[in-house]
Amino acid sequence: MSGMRRLAGAIALSHLVLIGIAAVDTKVSAQSNVVNVQAQSVASQVDFLTGIWEGTYFCAQGLTNLKLLIKAKSTTEIDAVFIFSAHPQNPNVPSGSFRMKGNFDDFNIPGIPDFLNLKATAWISRPSGYANGDLQGIVSSSKRRITGNVLLSGCSTFDVVKRE
Hints:
alpha+beta; Lipocalin; 2 domains; 8 strands; 45% strand
């Protein structure tokens, strides 16, 4: 009888071990699926941000054309070039450009906006009397638009739409 109990106990133990392995495997598989979805989401965000964005911004000199060339390597490593030039309503604005670095904060929560933060790093072409400023904007993937603030004294807002 004790041999039968040991056999029954061993069988029960082996079933518990198999159930535990299956539960761990299911949990690992679910976590792996979440990681894959997050990786796809990050990749699509990087692809979406990378490209040419065109629009305008407003500073002390008045309404000015803006072109942002964005190259996102990841959501935490974004390079950009800020290119400005005369707007038809403000034809006396000189042209210039500078480099920027930044990041993208994607909260993936309905109703919470996604933010693009770009900090000016170095001038490429600087007109006399001009200062470069940082950008902080809300990204709308559905509208292919970034709107926000130019963080520089005498400046207010910018608005760009993705062209490519």
